[in-house]
Design a protein that fits this description.
Elements: H1 2-23, H2 30-33, H3 39-46, H4 50-57, H5 70-83, H6 87-96, H7 98-104, H8 116-143, E1 151-160, H9 165-174, H10 185-188, E2 195-198, E3 204-215, E4 220-228, H11 233-240, E5 245-249, H12 256-264, E6 267-271, H13 282-292, H14 311-333
Parallel strand pairs: 1-5, 5-6
Antiparallel strand pairs: 1-3, 2-3, 3-4
Helix pairs in contact: 3-14, 4-8, 5-14, 6-7, 8-14, 11-12
């Protein structure tokens, strides 16, 4: 009997505490949920997005894109290429990741964008406007002395197109084309702007080529350009050539187009020579290889299978990847006085 009374007493106490917990309301601030050392905080401290906001506001219609605002949506795209996720994955990432919500400017319980908006947004911003944002950031880095273009590393990497060449082959056979080459492929291919490129006599790919110049003292990407895969490295140098200084390149740039481009821009072309060249200096080329080696890491994380069709869309992606790389690199450099507008 005594035991039963004690049990009733304790059950009453537990019921009281449970009622208190059910009625208790806790106010949560998203700012407090993001760790102080989170990398997104460092990105936001580096870049205030003022110049990007001005460029985005120059678009014809209003800046209140689907109720979210172009700046917040642009930050979503930045995270997409930062984390290398698809549109559907980005929708889920922003909806579930508190740091992503904080970075993009969404409230903790606010509805985040549907994945269908991201493709429309990329089209709305366009490659030309994005190139202005990238160029403005590059100009700020040069003004603040972070980039100098005194020593530049230039290289090209192949990008494989989003295509099924078996389907293209079947269409070519149906159209009675004798060969499947760069003349016939645009007539049957899903991605008509892609071309067949060759890395060597035994290595071919169908797609594009990304030409990139890297400022060697800082490791930041200075220029980036997308061309069809059949454009040679030497011919593509004109798209990313700096205005002065020395350019360190591999064997693909020792031919005439690259020499002419470098001379026209007042640059010294430090190119590794091919083995059959009479002017080849093995000791010098070995030294060039050692200088170039650390900057190959710029291409090590790049996904070589493109997500989009066409040069313009892939150029858009190249600018976004370059901005993400530069932000990550600036965090590593840890320049205390650096501030991008």
């Amino acid at each position: 009997m005594i035991f039963y009374i004690h049990m009733v007493k304790y059950k009453y106490i537990f019921d009281v505490y449970e009622a208190i917990d059910m009625n208790q309301t806790e106010i949560v601030n998203l700012e407090d949920l993001v760790p102080a050392n989170h990398i997104y905080r460092r990105f936001k401290k580096l870049w205030s997005f003022n110049s990007a906001t001005q460029i985005l506001c120059e678009l014809e219609s209003d800046n209140n894109y689907k109720g979210y605002g172009l700046l917040r949506m642009f930050k979503c795209l930045l995270l997409q290429f930062m984390e290398d996720v698809s549109d559907r994955e980005l929708e889920r990432f922003i909806g579930e990741n508190l740091a992503a919500k904080w970075f993009c400017g969404f409230g903790i319980s606010e509805t985040t964008p549907h994945f269908t908006l991201f493709g429309k947004l990329r089209k709305r911003i366009g490659t030309n406007n994005l190139s202005k944002i990238f160029a403005d950031l590059r100009a700020q880095l040069k003004t603040q002395g972070v980039m100098s273009e005194v020593f530049t590393f230039v290289d090209a990497t192949h990008l494989i197109s989003k295509a099924n060449l078996w389907d293209e082959r079947d269409k070519a056979i149906e159209a009675k084309y004798e060969k499947l080459n760069n003349e016939t492929l645009p007539k049957v291919a899903h991605d008509s702007q892609a071309k067949i490129g060759a890395k060597s006599k035994s290595k071919f790919w169908y797609g594009y080529k990304q030409h990139t110049s890297v400022d060697m003292p800082s490791g930041l990407i200075d220029k980036v350009a997308i061309t069809p895969a059949n454009i040679t490295d030497a011919a593509g140098l004109k798209h990313v050539c700096p205005k002065n200084g020395a350019i360190y390149v591999d064997k693909g740039y020792c031919t005439e187009p690259a020499v002419t481009t470098a001379k026209a821009n007042g640059c010294h072309l430090a190119a590794i020579k091919k083995d059959n060249m009479k002017s080849k200096n093995k000791d010098q080329d070995r030294w060039y290889s050692k200088i170039r080696a650390p900057y190959e890491r710029v291409f090590s994380k790049r996904n070589q299978r493109v997500r989009y069709c066409g040069i313009a869309k892939n150029q858009f992606a190249a600018f976004m990847y370059a901005m993400c790389h530069n932000l990550k690199r600036l965090v590593v450099l840890n320049l205390p006085e650096l501030r991008l507008a």
